[in-house]
Design goal:
Number of domains: 2
Bound molecules: 6-O-phosphono-beta-D-glucopyranose, magnesium ion
Strand order of the largest sheet: 3-2-1-4-5-6
Largest sheet: 6 strands, parallel
Distance between the termini: 4 Å
Number of strands: 6
CATH architecture of the largest domain: 3-Layer(aba) Sandwich
CATH topology of the largest domain: Rossmann fold
Radius of gyration: 17 Å
Helix content: 25-40%
Shape: globular
Strand content: 5-15%
CATH class of the largest domain: Alpha Beta
């Protein structure tokens, strides 16, 4: 391993918990395109910089941030319809999804960790995670899968990662989380876990280690 996760800070690493969108699979771009489409319909532009705040955050919370960005308000029924619309576009983008959407190094890193006895978990906010995992054919590389269908509090709340550590039967302090979002890094830290950020240090403060891609871990 080029970047040794076992040397993070001397404490043992027994579990690795992975975010899905933007860490293992290249779906973050589709979330962005679908939100941008909605913003356009609502009459404002939504930039990639605006989108950073949505990464890792649940669908409903993302909509609230988007509305805040556009200076708009909606009642609960309108919000439900708008979120549903965004999801329909997102799911359309996912229709062609296959293993080629796996980000470089994803499958290899999961295998290396398995072979070194590190338990692997998935900690994703997405309710589409089961569909995506099926398309990618990587579900069997995980010892525990927690997604947006099993959580009630969005990142930066640590719920998803704490549930995952519990499912792996590991104390949070023995787990390291791979994340590409600020909300996710904050969630992992709030849960008492170490974080490897996949992305730029300037955008993602607070992690113990940085990698441009999972390939750089190998
Ligand atoms: C996270 C994404 O993984 O899942 C967010 O980073 C997304 O952008 C969230 O909003 C919820 O996903 P979904 O598929 O349930 O709308
Ligand atoms: Mg992500």
């Amino acid at each position: 391993m080029k970047k040794n996760i076992f040397a993070l800070d001397g404490k043992p690493v027994r579990g690795a918990i992975f975010d899905l969108d933007g860490v293992l699979v290249d779906t973050a771009k589709y979330h962005y395109l679908a939100w941008k489409h909605l913003a356009r319909e609502l009459g404002f532009d939504f930039t990639e910089a605006d989108n950073e705040r949505l990464k890792g955050v649940s669908r409903m919370r993302s909509l609230e941030i988007l509305l805040e960005t556009g200076g708009l308000a909606m009642d609960e029924a309108e919000k439900a319809r708008a979120a549903e619309k965004k999801n329909t576009w997102y799911v359309e983008y996912l229709q062609g999804l296959d293993e080629s959407a796996l980000l470089p190094g994803s499958r290899e890193l999961l295998r290396v960790l398995r072979d070194r006895g590190v338990l692997r978990g998935l900690g994703s906010a997405s309710k589409n995670a089961p569909f995506i995992l099926k398309r990618l054919g990587i579900a069997d590389l995980f010892d525990a899968i927690i997604d947006g269908t099993q959580t009630s509090r969005a990142k930066p709340d640590p719920e998803v990662f704490l549930l995952c550590a519990k499912a792996l039967k590991l104390p949070p302090a023995c787990c390291v989380v791979f994340e590409d979002s600020l909300a996710g890094i904050q969630a992992a830290k709030a849960g008492g876990m170490r974080v490897i950020a996949v992305g730029k240090r300037e955008l993602l403060p607070g992690a113990e280690m940085y990698a441009a891609s999972l390939k750089d871990m190998l």
